[in-house]
Amino acid sequence: MSHDQSPGIAKKLNLNKFFAVGDDKRNEVLRALGLSAQRDHDWTTIWAALGLSAVQKRKLWEDLQAPMLTVAEVADIVEKRPKTVSGWCDRGEYPPDFPVPFDFGPRTKRWIALEVWAYRQPAIYRKRACGIARPSSSTRKILRRPTGNGLVPTTLDPMAFS
After folding, report:
1. pLDDT tens for the chain, residues 1 to 162
2. pLDDT value of residue 27
3. Which of 1, 56, 69, 109 has its CA 20 to 30 A from that of 94?
């Protein structure tokens, strides 16, 4: 794959910024995603590990490499208190059209910034955010998403467990 066809390599420092974490938490997040914490990864690998399609439209590469948002940052954008947003996460109950966070463990919830902005200002960002590709249910592999109690398989494909 040439550089023009690849979104590039995510080095450790890039990943610290992307996940909005320090070195130790970055390593924990990478391991939870099933990736080596000892090497750099292509962005397509990172996206696939998050449950997104590895292949994304070029116009979304920058958005999908932008730092993920913390609870405090999301709360600021949606004009709520961090405690309110944390409560939504704890209960797993979100306002309609609110993006579900990536759960990287206790006190480590992260959102794709474009999706939060699409919730806040749909007239401006929704169409772009809807362009983020996700695997179809027919080709979806069992993804491993980190939780507070370790890894659990997640999939929308009920046949994946048979």
Report:
1. 444 578 999 999 999 999 999 999 999 999 989 999 999 999 999 999 999 999 999 999 999 999 999 999 999 999 999 999 999 999 999 999 999 999 988 789 999 999 999 999 999 999 999 999 998 754 444 344 444 444 444 444 434 433
2. 93
3. 56
Q: Please write down the HEC assignment for all residues of the chain.
A: CCHHHCCCEECHHHHHHHHCCCHHHHHHHHHHCCCCCCCCEEHHHHHHHCCCCCCCCHHHHHHHHCCCECHHHHHHHHCCCHHHHHHHHHHCCCCCCCCCCEECCCCCEEECHHHHHHHHCHHHHHHHHCCCCCCCCCCCCCEEEEECCEEEEECCCHHHHC
Distance, CA of 121 to CA of 1 (rounded, Å): 35
Pairing of strands 102-103, 109-110: antiparallel
Closest CA to 52 of 109, 129, 162: 129
Rounded CA separation 50/145 (Å): 7
